[in-house]
Amino acid sequence: MPAPSRTTHGDIVAAARGIVAAGGLEALTMQAVATRVGVRAPSLYKRIAGRTELIRLVVVAVIDDLERRLASAAALVARDPRGAIADLARELRAFAHADPSGFGLIFGGAPLDARPPVDVLARSAAPLIDAARRLVGEERALDAARTLTAWANGFLTMELAGAFQLGGDVDRAFEWGLARVIDAVAADEPHDSKAARRH
User: How many whole angstroms separate alpha carbon 122 and alpha carbon 126?
Assistant: First the structure.
C-alpha cells in the first residue's frame, strides 16, 4: 500500500469519478475511494474533509471537462451567436453521452450542500449567457440562457433514460427542437440588432 503522500489530489478525484460512473453517487464513499487509490480511509481525510467535499470536487472536475468541450463553440460567440448556441448545445449533447453520470451531477444530481461555488457555475455558463446577450440584449440574456438550458437538459435527460420509444430519428428531433427553441428565444431580439443584421 503506497504512502498517503504518493496519492495525489487528482488521483482521488479521478477515483471518485470512476466510482460514480460505475455505481452512481450512492456508491461514492470515502472508504471506496481510499481502497481504489490504495490508502487507508483515515489517510484520505488528511486531504479531503469528507464525502460532501469529495462530491463537490467531482462536480467541479466534471464542469471543468464540460468547459473544455465547449471552448471551440464559445469562440464563435462574438461573430455568430446563433451558431454558437447551436454548437454549445451539440457539445453538451456529446458530453452527456460520453459522461452520463457527470451530466446528471451537474444538472441537479448532486446534493445541495455539495454544489460547487456560484463562480464555478457562472464561469461554465458564461459562453451561453454571452451568446444570449448578443442575441436578445442584456435584460433578457439570463432568461434566454435558462430557457435554452432547460430545453437541452430535458431532451438529453429523456434521451439518456431511453424515454424516446416511438421510433423516428432522435438526432433529427434534437436538431429540429434546437432550431425551434433558438428561433423562439431570438424572437425577442432587440430591434437595433435586427436592423444591424439587415444592413
Answer: 6
